[in-house]
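User: Can you predict the 3D structure for this chain?
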Amino acid sequence: MIDTSLNSSNFYFLTTVFQGFILSFIIIFRNVFRKTNLFFGLLVFLFSLSLLHLILEESISAFNAKFPIPMNFSLSYGPLTYFHILYIKNPKRTFLKKDLLHFLPSLLLDVFLFTALFLYIRAHIEWAYEHILFIQSLSLYLTCLGIVQLAIYTFLIYKASVSIKRVFREFQEVKKWLNYIIYLWSILIGFLLLAITFGLIFIENLDKNSALLYKPLGVFMGLCIYLLGYLYILKYAEVIKNYAKRISNFNISEEELEHLKNKILFTLKEEKLYKDSSITIAKFANHISWPINKLSTVINESFQTNFNDLINHYRITAFKEKIIHPDSNKYSIMGLALEVGFSSKASFYRAFKKETGTTPTKYLNTKT
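Assistant: Here is the predicted structure, written as structure tokens:
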């Protein structure tokens, strides 16, 4: 039976566990063949399982001795997150046999050592009560190994996130998601370091005051489940799906794309092709000897805009430079607009309002 003295805390924690299990299944099975979802769903599932283990361990006397089955796979948190990000970065990546080595520490410590230790405790329960401080200390020191491992994977996650392609319009949202994970793991590392330090210092009073560690840890794990699970489902799953799909269909390397982008910038800035009022994407592509679809793809992915808006951006930038020139009062607003490439008043005013949020006249009044 669960201890009713912790009934209110357990009720909220168990509710979180239940939601965590549901969230993990939704994430995994919303797209079964998408490895990003698989690894992240497993992460949420293991977080929920660890929280359930924490509840049972604190609520049932000698729970581990009565039920020596692994439920806390904390050494898998880092590898699961790392592979989640690797498959965002490269959806076509193949999971290799050597990748299983990332989960070897969890297999050896979370599974084999845990099972062997608590099978021994169950068979020697009197010895366990006599050496409870040793067992608690050993548990805390093993948690230190988990912190070191999580810190290593946080660094690997950061390195992987830095090298993610910046050329797609979804990049900023994907980057936010990766930053959330890195920040959360960093906070978790700091929290566990603090908790273990206090646990080791006050080891002799740990049994009496276990709630001081148990409840904050439960709250933090619950927040991780809610933040990661709901945030991913409601905001980032679709963005990451689109990002991964675009990467899979994009055959231009990041280095080549940067070179192509610089070619477009040179044509716009140095050759000032935007001043041609009759310029079209076909004419621009012919000028630089590219296929139209190639030019369109590079503009869409590198500048996160379309051809017309890109051309109008440079025209409006040129207009702003001319409007502050001392000789600008010799010309009308429309005269300057025609000089930078606009063909009509309507197209100029429409593009200017879209770019700046105001009209050319109001903009000019702020400069005088």
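The chain is about 75% helix and 0% strand. The mean pLDDT is 82.
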